[in-house]
Structures are given as C-alpha cells and as structure tokens.
Amino acid sequence: MERNVSEIVFDSRKANKNAAFVAIKGTQVDGHQFIQVAIENGADTIVCEELPENLDKEVTYVQVQNASLALGRMASNYYENPSERLKLVAVTGTNGKTSTVTLLFQLFMELGYQVGLISTVENKVNDEVIPSTHTTPDALTIQSLLKKMVEKGCTHCFMEASSHAIVQGRTSGLVFSGAVFTNITHDHLDYHGTFDEYIRAKKMLFDQLPKDSFALVNADDKRGMVMLQNCKAVHQTFGLRYPSDFKAKVLSNTIEGLELDINNKQIWFRMIGEFNAYNLLAVFGTAVLLGEEEEEVLMQLSKVKGAQGRFDKISLFGVTAIVDYAHTPDALENVLKTISGVRTGGEQVITVVGCGGNRDKAKRPIMAKIAAKYSDKVILTSDNPRDEEPMDILREMEAGVNPVDFKKTVIIEDRREAIKTAGIMAKKGDIILVAGKGHETYQEVKGVKHPFDDRQIVKEMLNLLNKE
Ligand SMILES: CC(=O)N[C@H]1[C@@H](OP(=O)(O)OP(=O)(O)OC[C@H]2O[C@@H](n3ccc(=O)[nH]c3=O)[C@H](O)[C@@H]2O)O[C@H](CO)[C@@H](O)[C@@H]1O[C@H](C)C(=O)N[C@@H](C)C(=O)N[C@H](CCC(=O)O)C(=O)O
Ligand SMILES: Nc1ncnc2c1ncn2[C@@H]1O[C@H](COP(=O)(O)OP(=O)(O)OP(=O)(O)O)[C@@H](O)[C@H]1O
Ligand SMILES: N[C@H](CCC[C@H](N)C(=O)O)C(=O)O
Ligand SMILES: [Mg+2]
Q1: Which residues are meso-2,6-diaminopimelate-binding (predicted)?
Q2: Closest ligand to residue 39's CA
C-alpha cells in the first residue's frame, strides 16, 4: 500500500502522526522494543529487521536486513539526495579530523566558494553556525544539514566521519566525492573491542566510496594502505616520509608556525607542529583533487587559522599557555613533542591533563606516562568524569606514571584548581599545556554539563596571579 510519510524517526518518543519509525538495534537497547510505542504515537510505517509477533493491519511493515543502512538511504531520499548535489568529502582517522575539515572549510571559503562543515566543534553553512552534538551526527541530521547547505548555495561540504558513526551506519546513503584518512592510533577500544575492529571501522568508509571519487590516505601511517585495499576510488597518498602523491618537507617548526616545502614552494603556515604538516598536506591534496589550482591553494592556505582549541596559544605575563584537545595518547605525545621541539632554553613545561569518564580506560595510564615523560611538572585532573568517580579515573592514570617521574606528578581533582596551580608553578618563559578539552565549554559530571572553558580559566588564572 502506498503511504504518505510525514517524517522519518528512529526514536519512538519523537514519532508523530504518519511517521515512519525505523527500529535500530542500539548499544543500550533494541529499538524493536519500541515499535508499539511508535505506533501509539502515530507512526504507521515501521522499518525493522525483525517483524513483531502481532502485526497491526493499519500499519505498513518493511522488513530490511540492516535498519541503520536503510535509515541512511531513506534519509537521503527524504531530503532529495543532497550529497549528490555538492562535493562532499569525509575525513576519518583517530586524530586530525576536526583540524583537517576546519582547514578545508576555511580554505574553500577563502577561495570564494559557499561551503558547509560538519565537525566536533561546530556545524556550519557558510557563516551560519549550527551547534554540534556529535563529531558525526545521525543520518537524518546529516542529510538535513546537507539539504540546508544545498539550499544556501553551497558547492562543497567537509565532514568528519568518526568510527562510531561509520559502524553505526550514520554515513550510509551519502555519496562522497572523496575521503581522507589521517592516521590510526589507540582510542575507543572500549567501543570497538580490538584494534583490528577499530581499523575495520575506518576502512568501511573507504569501501563505501564510488569509482569516480578519491581516497587520499596518509602514506606514513602503515594502515593508510589498508584503507586502499579493494577500494574502488582513485588511490592517492600524502606524507612527509614515504613516497607519496602529495609530499612536503618541514623547513622550520617554531612556536610561531611551520615552514613547509610543498612542490618546491616554500610556504609559511600559522599552525604549529609536525602533525599539522600532515593536516595541511591532506588539505592541499584534497583541494587539488577537487580541481583547485595548486598555487592559489597554497597562497590561501597560508592565511588560515585552524580549529578552535587546537594548539590555542595564550601568552600573558611572560607565560605561554597552550590549550589543546589532545585526548588520546598519540595526540598528547605529538603535542608534547612539538612543545619540546620549540623550546629555546631552560623553560619548564607544565602539563595539566585528565581522561574522560565512560570512555576507553586503557588510554588512562598511557596518557599519564606520556605527560610525565615529556613534562617537568604534571598535574593530573578531571576531564568530563561523566558517571565515574573522578578519583578512580585519576588513580588509573597515576598507575601509568614511571616511578622516576612520581616526584613531578600531582593529582588535583578540581580542574580549575589544577590550572591555577599550574599558573602558580609557572615562572616567566615557562609553557603550560592544558590538554584534553580544547574547544569544550563544559565539564560533564553525572549527566550535568557545568560551564567550563579551559581558555577562559587559563586567562582568568594568569590575570589573577599577576595581580597577587
Ligand atoms: C554509543 C553510541 O555511539 N551511541 C549512539 C547511538 O545510540 P545507541 O545505539 O546507544 O542508542 P540506544 O539508546 O541503544 O537506542 C537504540 C535505538 O532505540 C531508540 N529508542 C530508545 C529509547 C526509546 O524509548 N525509544 C526508542 O526508539 C533510540 O532512538 C535508538 O534508535 O546512536 C545515537 C543516534 O545516532 C547516538 O546519539 C548515540 O550517541 C551517543 C549519545 C554518544 O555519546 N556517542 C558518542 C560515543 C559518539 O558517537 N562519539 C563519536 C565521536 C567519537 C570520536 O571521538 O571519534 C561521534 O561521532 O560523536
Ligand atoms: N594529524 C594529526 N596527527 C596526530 N595528532 C593530531 C593531528 N592533528 C591534530 N592532532 C592532535 O589531536 C588533537 C585532536 O585533533 P582534532 O580535533 O583535529 O582530532 P579529531 O580527529 O577531530 O578528534 P575527535 O575524534 O575527538 O573528533 C589536537 O588537539 C592535536 O593535539
Ligand atoms: N570524541 C571524544 C572526545 C573526548 C574529549 C575528552 N574531553 C573527553 O571527554 O573524554 C569522545 O567522546 O571520546
Ligand atoms: Mg573531531
């Protein structure tokens, strides 16, 4: 029977009259349990993997093999397949997704295009900011954002594809012009179970690419080639070390920025650290593969600022504080190595860092060990403890610190106090790294998000201490 569907929903509580409810097996509950509730709320089309025992004659049931994939396709059709009407590029990898898509967004705006962005920090349709709830939202939200972008004249959209989203089919139904792989290191093993499963999740994005798209991978990450196996898209690589299609050489790397040689052109960028050379190269490669002119791209790219809360420098009263979103062992090590690399003399590095609650526990001791290894002083503190006891998280972190580093490590549960203490410890010339929260403006404790912004607290504390 033909039906007019008023809306598509995957949450029974949101179903209205004539809705199509898609029952999804989630991580907490099975959406099939809520089919009846959805019908009571007005849904008269049910898309499900297993049919309920008692069928309602007034309702149309559509049985599918994978409801998440079906949701993606339905959402795309519902919003008139917007991904086919603009150039959509997805960026995946453990670290560097937000940095890369933000640089791409800024670059394409500078190049004069109308552009969309879907990222951890914010979603954007040209200058309009639409708050972000996930790194990669659900399929319906993605499609409605893309539709809005098309309506506003956008020709390009750059989006992050998190491994959670790929596995949960949030990216299904999307037609990509290209995908980028930044790197893969330890994270989210609580969710994926094993590192191999985590790699497989990232690879699923590349398996989904059409023939006329490109797959641009980091040649210096040994999993880059894995992404390209059996991938139908045009294979492209970038890197600093291994032979690759897009290559760069770091000429200088200071606290002010990076100087790179790309295709025999020397360019200065505002971003700091070798990891940003990778991000910039991925952006350069993507722009060229999308048909942009190399010289123009490099010229515009040297102007862009990068993402909020990524190596954000605050210099006050002779102390340099860096607020960075490093929340994985690899990111923390990269940021600390970058800081070590730009040290000029006897300045100390003081690191304030925590690990999130209800997230991968295995990274806790490793991150604390790395923090202590590369810093002169370390303050372990809270970072979104969520439903866990903050002190339990901190003890798990502390357990990873090398005994020789015990003396330089302290635990201060309250993040504000921890930042203040770092400010007290710092002398002129010292560098404070406040890691883990970057752009976040809250501290999540037991279901409540309390306002908290590392950048603001750092400024407050340094100002306060200077007056004392
Ligand atoms: C663990 C996880 O990823 N969960 C995501 C998932 O929800 P879920 O599978 O847990 O859902 P569930 O509660 O089991 O419910 C199953 C189904 O029943 C439905 N339901 C449920 C109750 C009810 O009364 N009626 C009803 O219909 C739900 O709407 C759902 O469709 O699907 C939801 C819809 O897409 C997401 O909002 C939700 O993200 C949660 C909030 C989350 O915190 N996710 C994080 C871990 C995440 O996705 N992070 C990544 C970034 C990671 C990175 O750093 O790389 C991201 O992309 O943001
Ligand atoms: N290419 C890179 N390689 C390694 N580390 C990086 C890279 N780019 C950024 N980082 C570090 O990782 C942190 C997170 O970067 P970014 O926000 O770009 O990653 P992300 O992949 O979007 O993370 P999330 O999965 O949380 O959305 C940065 O603050 C920086 O410390
Ligand atoms: N996308 C990541 C962000 C972690 C940021 C950190 N501040 C935390 O809360 O653990 C996650 O949800 O695991
Ligand atoms: Mg991100």
Answers
A1: 359, 383-386, 436, 440
A2: 1
Per-residue pLDDT tens digits for 138-156:
999 999 999 999 999 999 9
| Structural domain span for residue 207 | 80-301
Quick: pLDDT tens for 74-96.
999 999 999 999 999 999 999 99
As given in the structure block, the two tokens for residue 456 are: 């603001």
**CA 170: distance to chain centroid?**
15
- The reply to whether 48 falls in a domain is yes
Residue 429 CB partners (closer than 8 Å, separation 6+): 318, 319, 345, 346, 347
Ligand 2 contacts CB of residue 384 (under 6 A): no
Angle between helices 363-374 and 329-342 (to 10 degrees): 10
Amino acid at 98: T
Q: Is the CB of 135 under 6 A from ligand 3?
A: yes
Q: What is the ipTM of this complex?
A: 0.96
Residues in the chain: 468
Token code pair at residue 315: 């210099």
pTM across the whole model: 0.92
User: Are 287 and 318 part of one and the same domain?
Assistant: no
279 lines ligand 2 (CB under 6 A): yes
The residue behind tokens 């950048």 is 455
